From TrEMBL, chain A:
This is Tryptophan synthase alpha chain. It comes from Paractinoplanes atraurantiacus. Pathway: Amino-acid biosynthesis; L-tryptophan biosynthesis; L-tryptophan from chorismate: step 5/5. The alpha subunit is responsible for the aldol cleavage of indoleglycerol phosphate to indole and glyceraldehyde 3-phosphate. Belongs to the TrpA family. Signal peptide: none annotated. SUPFAM superfamilies: Ribulose-phoshate binding barrel (SSF51366). Its EC number is 4.2.1.20. HAMAP family: Trp_synth_alpha (MF_00131). It comes from the Bacteria.
TrEMBL record, chain B:
Keywords: Amino-acid biosynthesis, Aromatic amino acid biosynthesis, Lyase, Pyridoxal phosphate, Tryptophan biosynthesis. Its cofactor is pyridoxal 5'-phosphate. GO terms for molecular function: tryptophan synthase activity. Tetramer of two alpha and two beta chains. The beta subunit is responsible for the synthesis of L-tryptophan from indole and L-serine. Its EC number is 4.2.1.20. It catalyses: (1S,2R)-1-C-(indol-3-yl)glycerol 3-phosphate + L-serine = D-glyceraldehyde 3-phosphate + L-tryptophan + H2O. It comes from Paractinoplanes atraurantiacus. NCBIfam families: trpB. This is Tryptophan synthase beta chain. The lineage of its organism: Bacteria, Bacillati, Actinomycetota, Actinomycetes, Micromonosporales. GO terms for cellular component: cytoplasm. InterPro entries: Trp_synth_beta, Trp_synth_beta/beta-like, TrpB-like_PALP, TrpB-like_PALP_sf. Gene3D superfamilies: 3.40.50.1100.
Amino acid sequence: MSIADVFAKAKAENRSVLIGCMPAGFPTVEDSIASMIAMHEAGCDVIEVELPYSDPVMDGPVIQKASDIALAAGVRTRDTLKIIEAVARTGAPVVLMTYWNPIEKYGVNAFARDLAAAGATGMITPDLIPDEAAEWIAASDEHRIDRTFLVSPSSTDERIAMTVAQCRGFVYATALMGVTGARTSVSSQAPELVDRVRHADPHMPVGVGLGVGNGAQAAEVAGFADGVIVGSALIRSVLEAPDRATGLSRLRTLSAELAEGVRNPRN
Amino acid sequence: MSAPSLPDLAGHFGRYGGRFVPEALVRALDELDAAYRSAKTDPVFQAEFESLLVNYAGVPSLLYRAERLSAAVGAEILLKREDLNHTGAHKVRNVLGQALLAKRMGKPRVIAETGAGQHGVASATAAALLDLECVVYMGETDTERQALNVARMRMLGATVIPVTNGSRTLKDALNEALRDWVASVDSTHYLLGTAAGPHPFPEIVRDFVGGIGIEARAQCFELTGRLPDAVAACVGGGSNAIGIFHAFVPDESVELYGFEAGGDGVETGRHAASITGGSSGVLHGARTYVLQDDDGQTVESHSISAGLDYPGVGPEHAWLHDTGRATYEPVTDAEAMAAFHLLCRTEGIIPAIESAHALAGAARIAPRLRAELGRTPTIVVNLSGRGDKDVHTAGAYFGILDPVETIVPGEQE
């Protein structure tokens, strides 16, 4: 299913899309595949696979730690593609979240080709802004990969319009000025940002990420956004579990709680 | 050669530079760019900057003809004595300029990254002088290696935050400073320490340190009646090098040499030579040369000099390399330390180990230039910093830190 279809289906059900993030290869290639499948089975509509990177400047301590663990275990870019393939094969819609340098090193067009072949539908680029993305825009058009750029509370209206015009699938609205990581409350800046995106393009689905970690917060964000993006809280379920089985079980429980949240939007 | 007109409006030096940053930072970078454009043409700002440089930092620094060193290496060596500036390095020029900009933008807080602590100390100095809050991110490994600089920063009123992520060195301190900035841009200026990072930093830092080259060019004329044959500088992030190169770029007869940290030797993989031993990539907000593996993961750098121990380089150097206007070569730890020793013993100057890389490079190119020119070449070397901070490293390297035999009173006869 394409990302557009996922959002359309959720809209028809009067709910938001739940997007769950997990770093590829954390803590091992096989374990990360199991985590992602479990997340999907328990209610994550879209699996966001994060490509581990040595210098993740948009990420808080939880994703940094998980990425470090994956890299220390030797995960490679080609493993990430294999993981995407394994997860997509189960029918889960998969998008990749990646910092730009690993893609530039792989070869931008070759990566778009291989990402599409692995079954991913889209790619989120946290440190690539449309201003620098000419090569990516061409490659993602050629290989039909949806492009998700970020907008931020600090973005001007002009930049929001320019950025949304270059997105396909959905746009990622960062709920607050900061890095990834669960927060005790949902940012008050998020609803206004979503409104500003809607003003620029009423049809582009908006996913809100940064700071969402439980069902109540998911319900709150679902009240004003088309998609709820959760990363650190899910990853922490695995990171802090005493063993793999407990980690998977906590991951399912939290995914289900978040899925319940996006089905009960609080307006 | 149209270097003075670069970067373009989007911060590109050819294919290098630009902005590879989270969208959240774009507005802050745009504001900084606008504030800098207006400051650049504002005589009041420029006069204030100039006054601080002259009356506080001790600029212009001397251009000193090092006679005994010249005799030893077979070239006329002119040392640009940035080591004599307040705080002991070229960095004071950049921090004063950026701290003034922070004031102008109404930002009461500055953050900085530091490796060995030199930029951190310089930032804390400027912040104290201009009454700004200052937070310095420093890799935990470096806070342990450079405890004295941590104490200096704290004495100057800065908060030092040890960074425990990743390799716990400069690149991780830079990541953490960027993360802070994403969350604090309204009140905070990121006082970046080198001519790298996203646009407009490479241009701003280059311009603030550009006085080095402007002064050296005029001083060389005064001293020798002509331009030098070559200009040599060490290159880590590359601010002291771009600072001395920039004024000479249009002078086609002047060869520009940047000496990177070759560590144990580029062939060993244990080095910090991003241009000669790395490849094109994106790191810390710009496209440039990066030490990276086949997957584009940043590789840890190695150098005896903490100030050069960084896996990237400023984008203008990448461009100067590709166009052939400047030549970049690696200098090993051993070569740098030999030059360090030579300068100590011939001139009575203890250089920063960073600057010793430039000295070693100058000694290497001297016979080559002599053969080319058929006469004694004149080489301007940027002595970018003093070596007080490196006495422990150098003492250990030369094995002179062994416990000195205690002289017991009464036993001397």
